[in-house]
Amino acid sequence: MFTLSPRTPQGRRIRAALVGTGAIARHSHLPAFRTLADEVEVVAAVDIDEDSVRTFCADGAVPHAYTDLDRMLAEQQPDLVGICSPPAFHREQTVAALRAGAWVWCEKPPSRSLEEFAAMEAAEGTDGGPYAAIVFQHRFGSGAEHVRSLIERQAMGRPLVAHCQTTWYRGAEYYAAPWRGTWAAEGGGPALGHGIHQMDLLVELLGPWSEVRAMAGRLVHDVETEDVSTALVRFGSGALATVVNSVVSPDETSRIRIDCERGTVELTHLYQHANENWRITPAPGVAPEELATWRDMGADVPSSHLAQLRSLLRDLRAGRRPRASGADGRTSLELVSALYKSAFTDATVKAGEIGPGDPFHAALHGGTPDRPGGWT
């Protein structure tokens, strides 16, 4: 069984490796690891492009460059592997790392389907790991933690109405990468690859959802997947939410708004949020003293890869399942899968409906990547 003892002065740093050396590894993962250099050391990087991985290692002072994941796992025996490759590789690479005894921190989207995610879960260990956590960094940070607590204990009353918005802009140059916009390589469009972050935070704040009704369209881009989707979501609490995901919106924003009985909480940002991005508006009659406690989010800890990595390393050392892994990591992918099934079938999809044997369990397009008449 793979475990690490709590850090002591006689202990060692966690050995980490990165798989995929593109922008997300260079600008998000590696800086987070470097910030925590007293706890973790990046010992290797892997990429099928030898020039890319060698440049990455030279620029980032990473000692070992590989083009073969299995060889790296055998020779370096990392404790933690960050998966920064395109979605088509997430299942295979996550399973390989887990079977080698390494914990995994996998970029979103976790996989291209619930079937693939189930294979990743099946490769995890028990009673101490290794486990695979998904990069859902918007859950972390002082603002998200504080608001989650307010809603969970109904400090502002019951949540009633919500809006979740990921309206971004991606031009033709974005889709110049041959794997983008394809079902086989990317797995889905903005609902999977972009909006999943805000949808994950929405579910984190509101709790389990119960049903989804959705539409999707390919309005601008010449791609296989959608470039816009909308959905109505009912939550177990009874709250109703609208969800909009887009990559055709020049005025880019990421936004969550939740109206509770006694107050509205709103988050507006783009790729990362801090305390200043949250706004709480009281209903008439709320005492100033109570409002002050709602608005007090404590020391400002922005949402970031760094914030999630700190939490993950604590869990790794303690040998306990981290947040955003297992069933907790699957929740948002279940919502995304339901959104696609509803859009393809023109039907309401219930929570728990998509299981083995359902075509939308195996692929987000349900085996019909272009339904008659197209998306629109």
TrEMBL record:
Sequence ranges assigned to domain GFO/IDH/MocA-like oxidoreductase in this UniProt record: 146-266
InterPro entries on file: Gfo/Idh/MocA-like_OxRdtase_N, Gfo/Idh/MocA_Oxidoreductase, GFO_IDH_MocA-like_dom, NAD(P)-bd_dom_sf
SUPFAM superfamilies with a match to the protein in the record: Glyceraldehyde-3-phosphate dehydrogenase-like, C-terminal domain, NAD(P)-binding Rossmann-fold domains
Gene3D superfamilies, alphabetized: Dihydrodipicolinate Reductase, domain 2, NAD(P)-binding Rossmann-like Domain
Segment forming the signal sequence: none
Listed PANTHER family: D-GLUCOSIDE 3-DEHYDROGENASE, UDP-N-ACETYL-2-AMINO-2-DEOXY-D-GLUCURONATE OXIDASE
The protein's name: Gfo/Idh/MocA family protein
Annotated source species: Kitasatospora paranensis
